[in-house]
């Protein structure tokens, strides 16, 4: 079976990541980039932001696989 450009077989749709989660990821990414520019990559602030961003990326990947609803977004 051929694979489409989005990585799934034709006719199969993977659930999309919620807009709220994508916004949260983008916001944290921007914060992380700013913090890394202002301090160093080993600073407590950068490490904490990186860990938070990782958490939300995992949530997005889980949503993409259809295993999670928007409910995981409220976790911080």
UniProtKB/TrEMBL annotation:
SUPFAM superfamilies registered for this protein in UniProt: BAS1536-like (SSF140500)
GO molecular function: protein dimerization activity
InterPro entries: HLH_DNA-bd_sf (IPR036638), Spo0E-like (IPR018540), Spo0E-like_sf (IPR037208)
Biological process annotations from GO: regulation of sporulation
A Pfam match: SpoOE-like
Domain of life: Bacteria
Name of the protein: Aspartyl-phosphate phosphatase Spo0E family protein
